[in-house]
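Project channel, design review

CF: Before we commit to the Artemisia annua constructs, I'd like one complete example in the thread so the newer folks can see what an input/output pair looks like. Taking Serine/threonine-protein kinase, active site protein.
RD: sounds good, go ahead.
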Amino acid sequence: MHLQTLLAIITVASLGSASAQNTSHCEYSCGNVTIVYPFGSGKGCYYSPDFLVTCNRSLDDPTAFYGNVVITNMSTSTSEMEVMMFVAHDCYDRFGNSINNNGPRLRLRSFRISTKNRFVAIGCDTFASITGKIGSDSGSTGCYSQCGSNSHITKDLARVWGVVK
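CF: and here is what came back for Serine/threonine-protein kinase, active site protein:
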């Protein structure tokens, strides 16, 4: 099975000019990712547990993680962290039975999703949503497509998408 990923950009308002404690055990890079304060990978190296980054060195290339999400870049100049997210999928057999699906989730406590991202749903009879909550306030948005009878849909016409900006 081919694993697809999606680049998500997370806005980190507090990346600013803060500096880590001067400790010799702090890692400042993992693979191609520079780990910048308030993030860190060791006790005393990050602002709070919400900023913990781990480095998996058992892979061919050392890989930085935020929880179970791969970090591809961190920037103090733009206050952003780029991560790779799994792409949701729902696969059906020729009889219309679901045979393989997933529902990836990204839970953020101290961060916002950047407006540089685009949320897309591709396929027939597809619904995708984003839900957010701050305190007791919550909201959601999403994409929906409906194609009708399969007898009238060709493979090229079956690719329907919606984009929420």
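RD: helpful, thanks. Residues 118-165 form one domain.
CF: The two ends are 30 Å apart (CA to CA).
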